[in-house]
Amino acid sequence: MTNRMPTAEAMQHMRKLLAEKNFGPQDKIPPERALSTTLGCSRETTRKVLRQLEIEGLVWRHQGKGTFMGPPASNIERPLDRIIESASAQDLMDARLVYEPALAAAAAQYATQDDLASLRKLALATGTARDWQEYERLDDAFHKAVARASGNALLAAIFTSLASVRGRSTWQRRHDAIFREARKREYATEQSAMHLAIVDAIEARQSDRAHHAMHAHLEAIRTLALTSR
Fold first, then answer.
1. Which are the contacts of 70, defined by CB distance < 8 A and separation ≥ 6?
2. Across the strands, what pairs with 55?
């Protein structure tokens, strides 16, 4: 094959490739560059092929995320992204209060020694954050580490989607206000102590205690988030 492969020939190879790989509906296919290499054609030809397949409804493309098999998933089939995108601070905190204590309880059963070391390091680091951006980064990393320590990849992935709302400017402005009003040093120190209480419970393999510690931590944040202006 050469980079001058006709589009029609590249299309045949693409259809064969997709069939051989046995991709299911909504499965992500390789990126354009990889497809061009596999097919032995130019990226321009690959783009033409993908555009045609998209017109036929065999694939769909999501800007910034890649190309997927089948027609675009309906809003009913993939509601989580849409709901998360419109979540308010109260929505987020209410969801976290339901979800994260259970993750902490699971982590008390399944966390590895590496998980525990990482959690303790992050818990301590949140207490020395220099500004709200650094605190947000460390706090986000801590809570995601708890989710991973649950030993359930699906639960951890769902939490990652839930936590993505923290990257929105509205949430960042709200947390910036909380950080300022609570006085950053005192706030960081208090939250770090709560993080350490969670880690201690997980390390002690006490699920109920871990559940309670996480709930208390999130309830404190929820109160601040909903009363801050």
1. 25, 26, 57, 58, 59, 60
2. none
Q: What is the DSSP letter of 164?
A: G
State pTM to two decimals.
Answer: 0.62
Q: What angle do CA 219, 220, 225 make, to 5 degrees?
A: 95
Fold (CATH) for 7-69:
Arc Repressor Mutant, subunit A (1.10.10)
Would residue 141 be called left, alpha or beta, if left means φ above 0 and alpha means ψ between -120 and 50 degrees? alpha
Those residues whose C-beta lies under 8 Å from the C-beta of residue 189, and which sit 6 or more positions away, are 127
Span 67-82, average pLDDT: 65
CATH topology of domain 80-227: Four Helix Bundle (Hemerythrin (Met), subunit A) (1.20.120)
Q: pLDDT tens digit string along 99-144?
A: 999 999 999 999 999 999 999 999 999 998 887 778 888 998 999 9
Q: Is 17 exposed, middle or buried (0-12, 13-18, 19+ CB in 10 A)?
A: middle
How would you write 26-93 as a 3-class SS string? CCECCCHHHHHHHHCCCHHHHHHHHHHHHHCCCEEEECCCEEEECCCCCCCCCHHHHHHHCCCHHHHH
92/195 Cα distance (integer angstroms): 19
How far apart CA 107 and CA 121 sit, in angstroms, is: 16
Closest CA to 195 of 219, 221, 213, 222: 213
